[in-house]
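Sample entry (426 residues):
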Amino acid sequence: MKRILKAISGSFLAFAARLAIRRYKPKIVMVTGSVGKTSTKDAVAAVLAARFFVRKSEKSFNSEFGVPFTILGVGNPWEKPLAWLAVFKSAFTLLVLPNHYPAMLVLEVGADKPGDLERILHIVTPDAVVVTRLPEIPVHVEAYASPEEVREEESLPAYALPPAAPLVVSADDGYALEVAARTSARVLTYGTSEEARVRVNESDFYAEDGVIVGMRAQAQVGAERMVVTVRGSVGQTQVLPAAAALAVATAFDIPLPEALAALDSYEPPPGRGRLFQGKHGSIIIDDSYNASPAAVEEALSTLRGFPNAARRIAVLGDMLELGRYSVMEHERIGALAAKSADMVVSVGIRARGLAAAAAKGGAQAEIFDDARHAALALADMVREGDVVLVKGSQGVRTERVVEQLLGDPNDRPRLVRQEREWLRKR
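Predicted structure, serialized as tokens:
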């Protein structure tokens, strides 16, 4: 019965969303890729809002349900019947009565299984696309025959672009560049590569009053050079969404100074490299939203480079949905963790292999089956000057570790998955 209701609701949402697009004719900017979609979507929306009335996907609403929610301007009703009635009422009102509808929608799109993006593209097609990264072993690969099939599906929005439409891709990602080469789009690149249209370099930790509060880098577009600063999160991956947003600004003729000023309002989303003061004078890098091999590798690089750490501690949960690549990737990441951390704490059954590889590489290894037990133990382990990276797939709930380590409990609402529906799953 639940499956039937879900199918009916999905069909209604898709139909209503198509009608809304047809009636209001907003420009559609889609953000796709395996890594960094939500941060990029938020940065792009911040820049475009300098010139346009913009609506963006909330949180990571990137599915065949999440995309219509954004188009219709409604929240996720979860499984509440009355909330679904409110969604239907809002959709009817939007389609029948006059509304001040956004001129531009910035939609994050993603695929958990084959056909997901094709279904989204039957609802709405893009006028511009941003492709972040298409890594060697992408998340959700266990649902596909091969990593190539995941990358191909995540590339579908780019292939759906009309000729000469803007396609913004990472100049540092060979797979994304291959996708661009197979389209007739107007390609704009961003990244650290010298060939990038929007190039960021000299990226480093940014401090205020001697305390690290974010990242800073040089941004260059043609002959123009300016400083871009991202506060609240750390890591090279926090600078790249800003670079992608500057490339989108170029596509829509927004001058670089105006775009950079607009980025002042950009704040990285929860669980993506966010900085917190931890217990006993420690520092927490909260990267607990999700985990894939490519994303964990980047996070470990950030931990390794974090200055003046007494100890570097990597709390790494299971990386889910990797299928036959799971054992190999957990062991590979464990070996990398040994080069980045003094202590590696594994959370989950799959991550045991990660801990074993880290111990073999010379790191102190601690093993826990779940986030609750890891959180309780770590609260007594951390000490002044420790820098603690926390990362794991959504199903591992490593935000529980972050919550337990917070120096100020009032920071808890700034963590990922703090909605009532998530907290009920505790």
